[in-house]
Amino acid sequence: MLTTTTHRRRTVALCGAVLLLATACGQSHGHTPQQLSEMIAETVRDSAGPDSLGLGIPDTAFDPARFACAPAVDPELPGGWRSQAPRTAVGGGEPVELGLSDTQGHSGTVTAAVTGPDGETATAEADLGEGEWIHLDYPDAFDGAELASGVYTVVWSDTESGAPITCDGFEVE
What we know:
Elements: H1 5-27, H2 33-47, E1 61-63, E2 68-70, E3 81-84, E4 96-102, E5 108-115, E6 121-128, E7 133-138, E8 150-158, E9 164-172
Antiparallel strand pairs: 1-2, 3-4, 4-7, 5-6, 5-8, 8-9
């Protein structure tokens, strides 16, 4: 014979556990979920070194066959972002012009982090004027950068917040 006594006991025990859990978690730290999220983000930013721009996208790589980065970089800074890089392979002796603009008028300092085929990353900053294009020549504007054959990934980010803006890239023969 099937009885429901076991189910009632389990239900009461489960409800009691949920009630205890809810009251214990609700008062243990005194912070809202938003405050906790901000505290975690601040800790991550503080623990990252100066070369850790574009946190959360270290595996992003430019694919010259698709003219896209995979995985894609979703901008964390609102705007109508456009990037510029050569769409055909360039020769090894010529500097590569990289550009960024925002059609919605963002202004401020941005950082371009260029990761070369050897996995090394070089960075450069530029001041973006409202509605203007900024251009940086790689490797000239990037300290310690060298131009070798292979595929390069360019991740643009907001210098102040570190928020990724967009990803682009180019290929050198």
